[in-house]
Amino acid sequence: MNSFNDELKVTSQVDGTSVLIDKRSTRLSTLLKNLEEDYQENEIQIPNIPGQYLAYIAEYLNYYNLKDPPKVEKPLKIYNISLMYGVWEDEFISEFCKNKKELWNLMNHANFLGCESLLDLACSKIAVYIKDFSHKQTLEYFGIIEDLNEDEAEKMHKEFENQLK
Prior knowledge:
- By secondary structure, the chain is mainly α.
- It contains 8 helices and 3 strands.
- The termini are far apart.
């Protein structure tokens, strides 16, 4: 980063943590871009995002200050973050998101910021993680209570499989 005018100071209203984000990177966040344009300042306050997540998101955004994040086709064709996105992205998401709570929090914060590429990366990480889950494991992972009886659930699964063909 060259000078203060090239950086945006973003402060968490949750805990007062501040991070610097290259202004070229704000294009990846609808909220940051709009706030930067609306206030024409080099400093903005962000509610709802604790500093540890804000710092992590800033690292992601700053990594892409001069390039665009990879576009990944959906539905996923392969289930390998390094092959879909790249080694840096795989290490990045794996380093911070050590458990479901951290990953889900990151998804919520990326969504709040309108950072679609980071949200896609986090969702892809979940897809890779649950790809071999049974129906029951998937329900448990997402905290869903099965409200169908066995016959109804089996019928629904068969209809879904037929649609995939």
